[in-house]
Every structure is written in structure tokens, then in C-alpha cells.
């Protein structure tokens, strides 16, 4: 039986990526095409996407050929929003209350306050009309943006649907949003002296958010900044005052975002770290050694589930660790079923939280669990995942987006973590739909409430996708924590799924995922529909 083929980009998109990729690196393009010939379609396409995105003409081509099609499809014939005023913030000496009062007197119901020097796309009024038709109760609408440079537009910032965590890291609204005039005036009743500046607008919008107004997102690039994205001088003080107790600090890597860490819990929960394994004493020794260096304020137990190891060195290592009291050892000699192994360990775990942890993962520092826990204990949080790196230092996991390849894909897989291109997607802590179970932290009560991992339906593939989507469906938010970094030598402990029975099992699990969660053609709310739905790298879709 042949492995079920995942979607392939359109011929137009493939040709566009190929033309740009070969100009960036002919040798790397040839390698990617070789992978394509050998049937490694996903690897080949992701490599071509990464190469194409490095070409200086990539964004210009997208603006010229694809952006108008995307705008037309999203606006779909909508009329311009009536009662819309677009103004540039005048600055000190004029209050926002005065500005909004004049707008109301002129019959305006919506206001787009721009930062000085910025401009908007001509499609904005009709895009807002389309947005209000979709979300008639919205009181804040925001959209994507880029930067005007001497050589043309550049540095696109594509945003997900509303993410409060991302907004703390950088103002997602200022200069790229519309506000409902009367709602804003009501919020200003307690803030009558706010000046019509970027800082004043940011404080007003924080007040509106505090009243429960969730911004709607238009996935179109409609604000063009006069200056490159840079740290906002007013933002740190505003969010620090708005979220007292949170650790919010500037970054050291030059990215125009803040590092955001929730308050530490008063009492650190206990944690059960669950590590399934089979043979490979070398990987297990490295994994356990890195866990031994853990500096976590609460109690930690390590449960190792040995799935039929036969290697003498591996058996001796596990026996010695168990005898020394460093691990609790379970044995399961049945066929490999990742979900069953973790469920068995979870059933005997005593920790308040479970940390699913692959045996081919190595912690790079002592504090990764402490950082993840500060997010995990926040109200309404489901699973928390870490940034995982391949041994060559590139990104292996920075959150998973549902719908990529009609299934689910690792966002920015293979990207240099130091890259500033679309950096908000791999370098910034944010909400996601799914995090990988290679390192996943979740409250034991929530694990049990959704039935744990589905061992009947997802023995090997997509079990973490299904699990996280169950958490999300229950009303919980899943978090990708970029500040926790670990090394992942992915899937070294099990063979590739090339046997006929393995291919059949993969196809069955893929079909179940698509049927249960309707992943075919799905647009993940924590991703951006302007990105290619067939690539894990953040590549603007040329389709």
C-alpha cells in the first residue's frame, strides 16, 4: 500500500518558488529536487520554500501577483464601510476624547488612527466593510502590516487571530486597527486626558480590551509603516503597569518584541516527567543526564516506560537508575503505541502536572521546566510546549499549525532560530493550536478530563495533535514557550514508517485526523492564511 499523499502546491506556486530558489542556491535547490524525486515531498517543498523566501524579490513578486488576488478573495465584493474616518494622530496638545468627539460630530462610526508617516492600502475601507459583515459585533478590528523602505515594501508582519500573549510582547493594534467611535468614547470616560499619541492610543485600546472587546483580525497587509519595526518606547511601561507581577523585559537579540513571563506560582506544583523508551542506551543516558541537571522548585518524579528493550546496555542503565531511586520504571513489551505508553504512566503518576518527554530530547539548561510551568499554571491554559532544535541548531518545533498539508505541520521547521524573517512565529511565546508531545506540560486533571492520548485511534502519528485539539475544544489555550529550549533528535528511536503495515497505519491515522478535526483545507486561527498551506516554513502563498 502506498503512503497517502499529502497535498502538493499548485503548479504556479511551485514554479515561482523554484525560480527564486535556484537563484539563491543552485546546489541546495538540486538537493531539494533530489529529495522530491526520491518521494520526500514534504522535505523537498519546505527546502524550496526556505530558499525562495531568502530571495530579495520574493516579497515584491508576492505584492505584484498574489496580494491583489488575496484581497479580492477576502473582500469578495463588499462595499466600503460607511461612516469611516481615517486620521493621523496629531500628537501632544490634542486629547483622544476631542478627536473622537469631532469624529462623532462628523457622523463617523469608526476611526482608523494612524501613526505619523504611515499610510494605508487603498483596499482598507472595503476590507473593513467585509470584516463588519463577518463580525457585526466587533468593536476593534486589526490587520497585518509591513514597512516602506527606500527600495520598496518589506518586513511583512503577518498576525494570527487575536492573541493576548502576543499583544503583551508587542502592540498588535497601534496604527493597524480601527476602533468603534462610541465604544472608544465610553472607555475614555475614565481616561479623559489621554493625548492623541501612539502611547495614548495604546492605553485606550488596553482599556477597551479590559472591557472584554476581542479584536477581529483581517488577514491582509493594509498598513505600511514609515519606519522599520523597532521596540516601542512607550509599550514596556504600559504593559508592565497593566500586567503587574509579570516579568516583561526587552530582548537581547534585536527583535522588536518583549520577553514575557507570567508570575511564578505561590506553590510550585509537583511534576511527573514521562519518558517512553526502547533500547538506545546512548540517547537515554543523555536524556536522563540532562534531566538530572533540572533546577525546578517543586518535587519532580521521572517515570520511564520501557517498551520492550532488549539491548543489554540499555537494560542495565534502566535497572541502575531505578535501583538508585532516580526513576520509576514501568515495562510494556507490547507493540509500539506512543499513546498507550504515556497513558499507562499517567495512570500511576503522582504529579499535579504531567510532562511528556521523548527519550531523544535533551534539556539545554536547568530552567526550562520552571519557565514552562509559569505559563501552565495560568487560568485557562491547557498544554505548554517548548522550542525544540535539531542537532544542527535549526528549528524542529515552534508550535504546530493545523491545516498545513491538510493535516498539521511544524511552523518554521528547519529555520535558523536567529532569523528575523517572520520571527514572531518561532521566536515569540504565543498561543498555538498544538504543541508536540516530545516535550509537553499539562495539568494531570486536564489530561484526564479529555481522556488522555487516544491509543485506539492514534498509536503513533498525530496523537499530540488530537490531544491538543481536545484541550482547545474544551476551552483551554495551548501555549508555545519560546524561552524554553531543548534539543530533539527526532524519531531516532523508532524506524521510519516504510513497511506496508506501517504505511497502512499512518494512512488510517491521517484519515481519522482529517475526519475528526476537518483538517483538510482548515485555516488555523493561530496561523495566518496568507502563508502557504502546503509549507511548514512561513512562506507567503504564491498560489
Notes on the protein architecture:
This protein has 543 residues and is α/β, with parallel strands linked by helices. 35% of the residues lie in helices and 22% in strands. The protein contains 17 helices and 23 strands. Strands 12, 13, 14, 15, 16, 17, 18, 21, 22 and 23 form a 10-stranded mixed beta sheet that branches. The two termini are 31 Å apart. The mean pLDDT is 93.
The helicity comes to 25-40%
Q: Describe the main β-sheet briefly.
A: 10 strands, mixed
Helical stretch count? 17
Q: Report the span from N to C terminus.
A: 31 Å
Q: What's the topology here?
A:
Elements: H1 11-24, H2 26-37, H3 41-53, H4 58-75, E1 84-88, E2 91-95, H5 96-105, E3 110-114, E4 119-120, H6 124-134, E5 140-149, E6 152-157, H7 164-169, E7 177-180, H8 181-187, E8 195-196, H9 198-210, E9 216-225, H10 235-242, E10 247-250, E11 258-261, E12 271-277, H11 281-292, E13 300-306, H12 312-323, E14 328-331, H13 338-348, E15 353-357, E16 361-363, H14 368-376, E17 381-389, E18 395-397, E19 400-402, E20 408-410, E21 430-432, E22 439-443, H15 444-449, H16 463-473, E23 477-488, H17 500-517
Helix pairs in contact: 1-2, 1-3, 2-3, 5-8, 11-12
Amino acid at each position: 500500500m502506498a503512503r497517502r499523499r499529502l497535498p502538493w502546491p499548485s503548479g504556479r506556486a511551485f514554479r515561482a518558488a523554484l525560480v527564486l530558489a535556484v537563484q539563491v542556491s543552485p546546489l541546495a535547490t538540486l538537493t531539494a529536487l533530489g529529495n522530491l524525486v526520491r518521494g520526500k515531498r514534504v522535505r523537498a517543498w519546505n527546502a524550496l520554500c526556505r530558499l525562495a523566501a531568502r530571495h530579495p524579490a520574493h516579497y515584491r513578486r508576492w505584492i505584484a501577483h498574489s496580494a491583489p488576488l488575496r484581497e479580492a478573495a477576502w473582500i469578495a465584493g463588499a462595499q466600503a464601510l460607511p461612516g469611516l474616518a481615517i486620521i493621523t494622530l496629531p500628537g501632544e496638545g490634542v486629547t483622544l476624547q476631542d478627536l473622537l468627539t469631532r469624529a462623532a460630530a462628523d457622523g463617523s462610526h469608526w476611526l482608523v488612527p494612524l501613526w505619523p508617516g504611515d499610510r494605508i492600502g487603498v483596499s482598507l475601507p472595503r476590507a473593513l466593510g467585509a470584516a463588519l459583515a463577518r463580525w457585526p459585533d466587533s468593536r476593534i478590528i486589526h490587520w497585518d502590516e509591513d514597512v516602506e523602505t527606500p527600495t520598496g515594501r518589506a518586513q511583512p508582519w503577518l498576525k494570527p487571530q487575536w492573541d493576548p500573549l502576543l499583544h503583551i510582547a508587542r502592540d498588535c493594534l497601534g496604527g493597524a486597527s480601527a476602533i468603534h467611535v462610541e465604544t472608544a468614547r465610553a472607555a475614555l470616560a475614565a481616561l479623559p486626558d489621554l493625548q492623541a499619541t501612539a502611547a495614548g492610543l495604546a492605553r485606550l485600546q488596553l482599556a477597551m480590551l479590559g472591557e472584554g472587546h476581542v479584536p477581529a483580525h483581517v488577514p491582509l497587509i493594509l498598513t505600511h509603516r514609515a519606519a522599520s519595526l523597532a521596540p516601542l518606547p512607550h509599550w514596556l511601561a504600559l504593559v508592565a503597569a497593566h500586567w503587574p507581577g509579570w516579568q516583561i523585559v526587552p530582548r537581547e537579540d534585536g527583535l522588536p518584541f518583549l520577553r514575557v513571563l507570567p508570575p511564578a506560582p505561590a506553590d510550585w506544583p509537583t511534576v511527573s516527567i514521562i519518558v517512553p523508551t526502547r533500547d538506545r542506551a546512548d540517547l537515554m543516558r543523555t536524556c536522563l543526564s540532562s534531566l538530572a541537571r533540572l533546577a525546578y522548585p517543586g518535587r519532580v518524579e521521572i517515570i520511564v516506560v520501557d517498551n520492550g528493550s532488549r539491548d543489554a546496555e540499555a537494560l542495565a542503565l534502566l535497572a541502575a537508575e531505578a535501583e538508585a531511586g532516580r526513576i520509576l520504571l514501568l515495562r510494556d513489551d507490547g507493540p509500539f503505541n506512543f499513546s498507550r505508553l504515556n497513558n499507562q504512566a499517567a495512570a500511576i503518576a503522582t504529579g499535579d502536572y504531567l510532562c511528556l518527554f521523548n527519550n531523544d530530547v535533551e534539556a539545554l539548561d536547568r530552567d526550562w521546566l520552571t519557565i514552562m510551568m509559569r505559563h501552565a499554571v495560568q487560568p485557562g491554559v491547557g498544554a505548554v510546549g517548548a522550542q525544540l532544535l535539531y542537532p544542527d541548531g535549526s528549528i524542529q518545533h515552534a508550535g504546530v499549525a493545523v491545516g498545513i498539508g491538510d493535516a498539521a505541520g511544524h511552523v518554521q521547521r528547519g529555520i535558523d532560530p536567529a532569523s528575523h524573517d517572520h520571527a514572531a512565529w518561532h521566536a515569540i511565546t504565543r498561543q498555538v493550536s498544538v504543541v508536540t508531545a516530545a516535550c509537553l506540560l499539562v495539568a494531570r486533571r486536564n489530561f484526564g478530563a479529555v481522556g488522555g492520548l487516544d491509543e485506539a485511534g492514534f498509536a503513533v502519528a498525530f496523537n499530540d495533535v488530537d490531544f491538543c485539539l481536545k484541550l482547545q475544544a474544551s476551552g483551554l489555550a495551548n501555549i508555545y514557550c519560546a524561552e524554553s529550549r531543548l534539543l530533539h533528535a527526532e524519531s531516532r528511536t523508532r524506524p521510519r514508517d516504510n513497511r506496508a503495515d506501517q504505511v497502512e497505519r499512518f494512512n488510517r491515522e491521517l484519515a481519522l485526523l482529517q475526519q475528526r478535526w476537518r483538517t483538510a483545507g482548515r485555516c488555523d486561527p493561530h496561523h495566518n492564511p496568507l502563508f502557504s498551506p502546503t509549507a511548514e516554513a512561513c512562506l507567503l502563498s504564491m498560489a
